Amino acid sequence: QVKLVESGGGLVRPGGSLRLSCTASGIFLAIKTVNWYRQAPAKERELLGSITDDGITTYAGSVKGRFTISRDNAKSTVYRQMNTLKPDGTAVYYCNVYKYWGQGTQVTVSS
Fold it and tell me: Which of 23, 38, 84, 96 has the fewest CB atoms below 10 angstroms from its CB?
């Protein structure tokens, strides 16, 4: 059974940073592309970026330069470092591999 678990969300002030984690079980994460999405209240789910099995990353324009995706295949974990967070970054953040989704982790950016 494939399971993705996100963690690391929380409350952060504008301009602050958070690092999210996505840990997989039941799947050999090292050979998979992992995607990060977010869904803000009353908005559609938005693709933020991806990391391929060989570590190539792509980012949405809205987060490029502020968010970084990395992976530790030995830990079956993909990370998302988010810097200079803005209030519009308040959302539930999800990781996705193929057809599998985690439960999401809430990030709230507020002073």
Answer: 84
